[in-house]
Give the backbone structure.
Amino acid sequence: MKKLLSIALFIFLLVGCSSNARPVNNNEIKIVTTIFPITDLTQKVTGESVTQLLPDSGANAHTWEPTPQDIFLLEEADVFIYNGAGMEEWVEDVLDSLGNEELLVIEASKDVAKIDGHGHAHAGVDPHTWSSPKTAKTQLETIGQALMSEFEDKADDYKKNIEKTVTLFEELDKEYETALKDLPNRILVVQHEAYGYLTHDYGLQQIGIEGLVPTSEPDPARMVDIIKLVKEYDVKTIFFEENVSDRVAQTLANETGADTAVLNTLAFKNENNDDLIQMMRNNLQVLVEGLEQ
Ligand SMILES: [Zn+2]
């Protein structure tokens, strides 16, 4: 009996592997993602929930690493979607070690034109590729195209969802263009440099107090430089982040007389459960208020 079962399983596996396009219904597609923006963009394509590896609170997206349970999820998954561009440094090693040969792997940032992260980390590439409405739209399309070619029987539904979301990002992009183009102050002093694509796309400049990663303490010389710069360019607002101590930003604000405001890095879901588009809209309001004074 045991032998018969294993023969049946063997035949099932053979048949199961013989087709490239997977004829599964949506509920059976197991998609695993890494960080919130990838989760949100993927759900906008499929309309279904996914399994996200990083917790939405208490994690540092730059230093997080998967547990054995996370590896098990990847062994069982149909699709794995990560940001890439150096954001998840563990991905290459983990993918090499997996036995799951059927896994479709999508690097969401692969079609985004990369910008330099000023050499603080990640071989010069800025990994925060989701921060602008323009680059987030590109990532949506990359994820969408890959899922459409893999799951042909869902492609029509995915296509409609993608088109609808592309329109929303294009509207948001216009809002950003209009709201940001005439602001007198164009320098963003931020806690860590998570907004490179945003500032690049809309003609702003970011100065990171702590560089590209939020855990590093600024050295005293850098603090002196930033205080000088804040005074010289009459910067009115120091932007810090949700979920991270604002001690350094607060010190800087006290030293210079600038205000502080909270700008979201969009790497994690917020308390209101807003989607990425709403969070970007919130950020735009914070930016306008912080830069127009
Ligand atoms: Zn970051």
